[in-house]
Amino acid sequence: MGITLGLMIGGLIVLVAGAELLVRGASRLAAALGIAPLVIGLTIVAFGTSTPELAVSMQSALAGQPDLAIGNVVGSNILNVLLILGLSALITPLLVAQQLVRLDVPLMIGASVLVWVLARNGVVTQLEGIGLFGLMLAYIGFLLWQSRRERNAAVKSEYEQEYASHEPKSVRRNLLNILFIVVGLVMLILGSRLFVQGASSLARLFGMSELVIGLTIVALGTSLPEVAASVMAAIKGERDIAVGNVVGSNIFNLLSVLALTAIVAPRGVPVSPGALNLDMPFMVAVAVACLPIFVTGNVIARWEGAVFLGYYVAYTVFLLLDAANHPTVTQYRDFMLIFVVPLTLITMVVSLGREVRRRRTNIVISGLDS
Description:
Elements: H1 2-33, H2 37-49, H3 51-62, H4 66-91, E1 94-95, H5 98-118, E2 123-124, H6 126-149, H7 152-163, H8 171-204, H9 210-235, H10 239-264, E3 269-270, H11 273-295, E4 299-300, H12 302-323, H13 329-369
Antiparallel strand pairs: 1-4, 2-3
């Protein structure tokens, strides 16, 4: 028990230090290379912090533990939105770039629905994995093409507004920033592995199933890089990276982590009925919930972050009650479905309606002024 706790604590320390180096190097490199901070968050930071999910899912599938692989991907996507954005928004309200609303969040929703549909027959095949990975390559290519179209002056202005920093451009400085990113990623991967080893051992002592372990302990462990990177970015005021990291990581998990896992697994990745009927639909619902929240004022307010956190706690409690076959699990599920979920939907619809009216009013006023 002592060794297990030591692994978990040591992993957390390494993760926090790695996140600090990664965010520092990535944010400074954005200005030096003339790349928008949002693109850095959607690519370098998001993909880099998702490498633990890739390693764990591929190893699990090859070792004949498909529930662990699927639970890791689905659980990480749920955790990324509900826990990471919730914590980050509680630290500081997060501004949401228009690109996220128009492109990246719809892509995340589409990828979530596509993966759920592909898995309805009980397996994500190798051919389907190739198709998903092809979409990932197309997305990366589009981001890079779009970034090159932006004028350097506009990128510089966005950077200065976002980071309030003026870093000198030099080869030495760029190499140092790249070193920060590489060392940060290595520390993130090492820290997450230490945590997952300790947490998985601890979970198995309580007789939890592989799917529940994947959805909770392993998903939390492999998502700790995203937690650390996004929270650190929010503390530093680097809000484009905080939000872009989460959305980019979710896209990467579906179109790259799950895709590559299905490609290398001899018979694809089997998906259990439990994941199909509960966890994947919940993942889709969480992705869809991002759109109205992101649209309202293009900001994630603190109260919306609190709602996200509340749902993550409620979902985790349900998983643990269900795993333990607790007699109150049915009543708990019914309470969430009958009262909590409809109340949240009503609140979101009201907020979205107010935003639509506000934008219409602004259009009318601007028309009268002109």
